[in-house]
Design brief:
The complex is a heterodimer. By secondary structure, chain A is an alpha/beta fold. Chain A has two domains: about 10-325, Thiamin diphosphate (ThDP)-binding fold, Pyr/PP domains (Rossmann fold, 3-Layer(aba) Sandwich), CATH 3.40.50.970; about 330-364. Chain A has helices at about 30-55, 70-80, 95-100, 105-110, 135-150, 170-180, 210-215, 225-245, 270-280, 285-295, 300-320, 330-335, 345-360, and strands at about 10, 85-90, 155-160, 185-190, 195, 195-200, 220-225, 250-255. Chain A has a six-stranded parallel beta sheet, with helices on both faces. By secondary structure, chain B is of the alpha/beta class. Chain B has two domains: about 30-220, 3-Layer(aba) Sandwich (Rossmann fold), CATH 3.40.50; about 230-355, Rossmann fold, CATH 3.40.50.920. Chain B is built from twelve helices and 15 strands. In chain B, helix 1 (about 40-55) runs parallel beside helix 7 and helix 8 packs across helix 12. Chain B is globular. Chain B starts with 5 loop residues before the first strand and ends with a helix. Classes of the chains: A alpha/beta, B alpha/beta. The interface between A and B is large, with 45 and 44 residues. The structure holds thiamine diphosphate (TPP) and magnesium ion (MG).
């Protein structure tokens, strides 16, 4: 333990912003269905995102956090995980959740202000998204501990933003993952901004990945707009977590090409030129160029895929808009396993109030 | 200050220190400007006033400097007073609260913003274990003159954790003052009172009415006292007690009942802790009937505390049971079912009619 230690943080990138190759490709690149799935899910994510923003702008949905420009990270999380693994997502992870079985309509349902959007079709044991920043991180080490204690070969993937790394929860969780050798992978979506606060005002650390070193776990920085690098880093980290109980932190460098949420206006605090420059690095076009270079893509395929994705979105929108309102008692029926008798009167009052509202057409 | 309320507190304890006019700072306050302001603008105006007047005041929090706050409450402060006194902090509420305690112990007057009340929980350890106790623990050697501002309450169709009203949690902590304005004028005066108070004050801002009706405000630096309820309207038949955004529904109810010949006395508690029971008891001694309305869940709420004190001190004045109109004892629903949760005009009217019909 004594003495000076030297550390370095590796940066992983295969595709430069023009989709050109920097490094020899990893082996899995020959798995064409996987490669195409990365692309199609990114396109789906972008279209879904556009639709969500449009629904909000037209008053059909509530506040929504766009993931524009950050699609590669969540898509690769979703594709790199095994079904039995557990995802502990944050609010820009709809693409991963959809890959893991959430219906795209649930994105609209959730941000439309309906708790059923957190149901995730009832099928998986993934956690729902966490609104209080960074609180998912300590839960995630709890999930990992449970999986380990129960002897499961499952891994936890937990994500957060760059701002979240300023909270104690982040270091607390990584620290424990190190001490207890937990099967967990931390992924940071470093989109450089936490609402109006740029990363330089969160930390003087040159990378966020190096925070892993203090916790004694592996830390790696990847180009978060290079899907090959992101997939490679996450899938290898998951493998090490599964086989050797080795936790890791992956910092994915990307950029928030959108406002923080639909309630924000980034032009108040962010330089337009900076935004413009980062459009040159966005992941979807970059990966499309790569596919062309590999001879895996052409205009016809692009068109067919766009139509497939559009179909998914259209179905999601009509499912969302057709969804019947929840019964009024739902606001109290899920509070406990059984309604405590002390709450029966209030439950009855809720039903009465709902009737009154409906007959008046006005809560007042 | 302006005359849409009358402060009926008998003792005038001095939390509302008169402002020093020969102040340092850049802002000249010799001639008070008068402006039409909505509540959030009144808060902004009070912050500007006090930063100009008192160089010890600093503003800190997430997105408060460059962005001027997500609700624009701190707009222009950084430009006017510089980034030394208007600080964007890293994203960490525990840090914001601890930092404020430390600053306050050394003579600064931090005004911290917690972006939404739902995100205060990491800050509570510092507020409860330290801010509320510093003076007591050091027998007055160190103090904690800080303000923590947080928007709270429902009705704006926000995502989860952006709509709760957990004022009772804070009011339960001895040593913390909890203040809730219900109009632009009271926001201005109460915030100045909070900043000048020598002890920690939690200042809860009802965001549903942030941009409701504008009021004419003299930017004269006059603080309001922090231990006085405001009787917004005098009446004979029943005392209606509330605070925050719900005051506007209560006023509507009082108007409607007035047209029917029922005279309601409306009290804005405003300083929910410590609670000015003198004003409330005086009113109930006159009316003999009382309804308390709040958005927070009913059980364990401040309504229960007021009702208990009425039972202790006003039993013989009461002609009917005290009723509470409140949120349900359940998690604040997301936007789609929010209206079902929030108490409104109909609920308050029904409770009043019940109390009036009694006995
Ligand atoms: C504990 C807590 N504090 C404040 C907020 C309000 N808030 C929502 S998102 C956000 C910024 C998050 O930034 P970052 O972690 O970088 O994630 P990003 O949104 O950029 O993906 C803030 C301050 C919150 N949700 N939770
Ligand atoms: Mg960010």
């Amino acid at each position: 333990m004594r003495g000076r230690q030297q550390f370095s943080i590796h940066f992983l990138q295969y595709l430069d912003p023009q989709g050109k190759l920097d490094l020899p490709l990893p082996e899995w690149i020959t798995d064409t269905p996987l490669v195409l799935a990365i692309y199609e899910n990114m396109v789906l994510a972008r279209l879904l995102d556009q639709k969500a923003v449009a629904l909000q702008r037209t008053g059909q949905m509530g506040t929504y956090p766009s993931i524009l420009g950050q699609e590669a990270i969540s898509v690769c999380i979703g594709l790199a995980m095994a079904k039995r693994d557990v995802l502990v997502p944050y609010y820009r992870d709809a693409p991963a959740q959809i890959i893991r079985g959430m219906s795209p309509a649930e994105v609209f349902i959730y941000w439309g202000g309906d708790e059923r959007g957190g149901n995730l079709n009832g099928a998986s044991r993934d956690l729902p998204i966490c609104v209080p920043i960074a609180t998912q991180l300590t839960q995630a080490v709890g999930v990992a501990t449970a999986l380990k204690m129960q002897g499961e070969e499952a891994v936890v993937v937990v994500s957060c933003g760059d701002g979240a790394t300023s909270k104690g929860d982040f270091m607390e969780a990584m620290n424990l993952a190190g001490v207890w050798d937990l099967p967990i992978v931390f992924v940071i979506n470093n989109n450089r901004w936490a609402i109006s606060v740029p990363l330089a005002q969160q930390t003087r650390a040159a990378t966020l990945a190096q925070k892993a070193i203090a916790a004694g776990i592996e830390g790696l920085q990847v180009d978060g707009n290079d899907p090959i690098a992101v997939y490679e880093a996450i899938s290898k980290a998951i493998q090490r977590a599964r086989e050797d109980q080795q936790p890791a932190l992956i910092e994915a460098l990307t950029y928030r090409l959108c406002d923080h949420t639909t309630a924000d206006d980034a032009s108040r605090y962010r330089d337009a030129d900076e935004l413009k420059a980062h459009w040159q690095e966005e992941p979807v076009l970059r990966f499309q160029q790569f596919l062309h270079q590999q001879g895996l893509w052409d205009a016809d395929r692009e068109k067919a895929m766009q139509q497939r994705c559009q179909q998914v979105i259209d179905t999601a929108v009509s499912d969302y808009l057709a969804l019947e309102a929840e019964p009024p008692s739902a606001i109290i029926d899920y509070l406990h396993a059984f309604l405590p008798y002390a709450l029966e009167t209030q439950r009855a009052e809720i039903l009465l109030k709902d009737n009154a509202i409906k007959s008046q057409g006005d809560r007042k | 200050m302006s005359a849409n309320f009358s402060a009926t507190k008998p003792s005038q304890a001095g939390t509302s220190t008169a402002p020093t006019r020969e102040s340092s700072g850049t802002h000249t306050t010799t001639e008070a400007e008068t402006k039409d302001c909505v509540l959030v603008e009144a808060i902004n105006m009070a912050l500007h006033y006090e930063m100009a007047r008192d160089p010890a005041v600093v503003v800190l929090g997430e997105d408060v400097a460059s962005n001027g706050g997500v609700f624009r409450a701190t707009l222009g402060l950084k430009q006017a007073y510089g980034s030394e006194r208007v600080l964007d902090t890293p994203l960490a509420e525990g840090l914001i609260a601890g930092l404020s305690v430390g600053m306050a112990s050394q003579g600064l007057k931090p005004i911290a913003e917690i972006q939404f009340m739902g995100f205060m929980f990491a800050a509570l350890e510092q507020l409860i274990c330290h801010a509320a106790r510093m003076r007591n623990r050091t027998r007055g050697r160190l103090t904690c003159p800080l303000v923590v501002r947080m928007p709270f309450g429902g009705g704006i169709h926000a995502p989860e954790h952006h709509s709760e009203s957990t004022e009772a949690l804070l009011a339960h902590i001895p040593g913390l003052r909890v203040v809730i304005p219900s109009s632009a004028t009271r926001a201005y005066g109460l915030l100045l009172g909070a900043i000048r108070d020598p002890d920690p004050v939690i200042f809860l801002e009802p965001k549903r009415i942030y941009r409701a009706q504008a009021q004419r405000i003299d930017n004269d630096g006059q603080a309001l006292p922090l231990d006085t309820c405001f009787t917004l309207r005098e009446g004979e038949d029943l005392t209606l007690i509330s605070w925050g955004a719900l005051i506007s529904e209560c006023s509507q109810v009082a108007d409607q009942l007035h047209a029917q010949g029922i005279s309601v006395e409306l009290i804005d508690v405003a300083t929910v802790s410590p609670l000015d029971m003198a004003t409330i008891l005086q009113s109930v001694a006159k009316t003999g009937r009382c309804v308390i309305a709040h958005e927070a869940p009913k059980s364990g709420g401040i309504g229960g505390e007021i009702a208990a004190q009425l039972a202790e001190h006003a039993l013989l004045d009461l002609k009917a049971p005290v009723l509470r109109v409140a949120g349900y004892d359940t998690v604040m629903p997301y936007a789609k079912q929010e209206a079902l949760y929030l108490p409104g005009v109909v609920d308050i009217t029904r409770a009043i009619q019940q109390v009036l019909a009694f006995g």
